[in-house]
Amino acid sequence: MSLTSFGPANLIKRSAETHPLTWRLRDDGEPVWLDEYQAKDGYAAARKAFADMAQDDIVQTVKDAGLKGRGGAGFPTGVKWGLMPKDESMNIRYLLCNADEMEPNTWKDRMLMEQLPHLLIEGMLISARALKTYRGYIFLRGEYTTAAVHLRRAVEEAKAAGLLGKNILGSGFDFELFVHTGAGRYICGEETALINSLEGRRANPRSKPPFPAAVGVWGKPTCVNNVETLCNVPAIIGNGVDWYKSLAREGSEDHGTKLMGFSGKVKNPGLWELPFGVTARELFEDYAGGMRDGFKLKCWQPGGAGTGFLLPEHLDAQMYAGGIAKVGTRMGTGLAMAVDDSVNMVSLLRNMEQFFARESCGFCTPCRDGLPWSVKLLMSIENGEGQPGDIETLLGLVGFLGPGKTFCAHAPGAVEPLGSAIKYFRPEFEAGIAQAKPGVPPLARPIVIGA
């Protein structure tokens, strides 16, 4: 994976002032281990948090900085931290790092864990101090074997240096950290499904309320944050609120920087740390280099397979939650995918919906039955055997599986790209509808769900 720039972006150099997440990266892509990390001001923010800041002040600083979750949902981190109970008698509480990262076209957390494992550990250490959690878990996608090796080595280095374990930095605060590899399920990206899996249960989402802050791991107060979210914490504590807010471009309602990228048939697929508010066109043209010779951009997704498709004319949208919402979808993980003009949208959607149908936990009926139904319809259309009304049925499924209609956000994310693909490329779907033969009744369709 690339962290280099393309074209005019070559003029931009990573520094601690502008690239808090990535300035410590090595040019050779090797991990930054403890000695080098500390030589690059590593754990300085943790020492500041332990020596000079009250625990509630850490929470307030993160809240004032406006840090939002970087896993895709974008919930304010400081607000989430504030939901943890204040009762000091509840001394068993947990911090969970969501490192499941199963979203297709997304690999940002993997880079951080493989190359900067101590940045994540420092972020969790400061967060644990703020939340008064005595134990933490990094719930890691099972396929990330290299990240697991690097994280476990970094944890042992931190323990040996007195940065994890008992009486950290002479403060009397204890924090143990464990790396837990999952079994490879997309649904574990949902925080309560992750908690169930960590406990050894089936990875089904839980009913909320109660929320994890009240009843989480083994019934105890628990805070769950994404890898990139936690990696922002050291810089916020070390450099302050005003500095962090100054990083974003004018017009952005989100603060700080974000790991963004482009995959697909672009000249320079990769991953870059950029300020919120950069336009998608700048990301696509200046960093990703535009499409390869012989290919034309047909459409793109701004942040993973669970976000809606956008057209080339939408590239001027700013990359932050509100900016992407203005053109009709969600920013998601910020890792965009370019779809070239050789791709048939029906085939692409069939492939996507097969993934989402397979990854459904099966708990609620709309998701369990609706997603496989969409796959069957798409397969028929792909093979030129679709029936009149199939497109209307697919649109009905988009509505029936939308936000608020299912137990968790899996199904709404699964059907968002389907609805946008039909909106922008309906003729490709219509081309797969077989012409009805005279005298032959149609199959048991059309059925418009929720009409």
Automatic annotation (TrEMBL):
- Write out the entry's keywords from A to Z: 4Fe-4S, Flavoprotein, FMN, Iron, Iron-sulfur, Metal-binding, NAD, Quinone, Translocase
**GO molecular function terms noted in the UniProt entry:** 4 iron, 4 sulfur cluster binding; FMN binding; metal ion binding; NAD binding; NADH dehydrogenase (ubiquinone) activity; quinone binding
Q: What class of enzyme is it?
A: translocase
Pfam families attached to this UniProt entry:
Complex1_51K, NADH_4Fe-4S
> Per its UniProt record, what InterPro entries does this chain match?
NADH-UbQ_OxRdtase_51kDa_CS, NADH-UbQ_OxRdtase_suF, Nuo51_FMN-bd, Nuo51_FMN-bd_sf, Nuop51_4Fe4S-bd, Nuop51_4Fe4S-bd_sf
The EC number(s) attached to this protein equal 7.1.1.-
- Lineage, top-rank taxon, reads Bacteria
Q: Which reaction does it catalyse?
A: a quinone + NADH + 5 H(+)(in) = a quinol + NAD(+) + 4 H(+)(out)
Has UniProt tagged this entry with the keyword Nucleus? Answer: no
Cofactor(s) demanded: [4Fe-4S] cluster; FMN
Domain (NADH-ubiquinone oxidoreductase 51kDa subunit iron-sulphur binding): give its ranges: 346-391
Query: Is Glycoprotein among this UniProt entry's keywords?
Result: no
Q: How does it assemble?
A: Composed of 13 different subunits. Subunits NuoCD, E, F, and G constitute the peripheral sector of the complex.
- Name the family the entry cites: Belongs to the complex I 51 kDa subunit family.
Protein function: NDH-1 shuttles electrons from NADH, via FMN and iron-sulfur (Fe-S) centers, to quinones in the respiratory chain.
Protein name (database record): NADH-quinone oxidoreductase subunit F
Species assigned in the record: Pseudomonas taetrolens
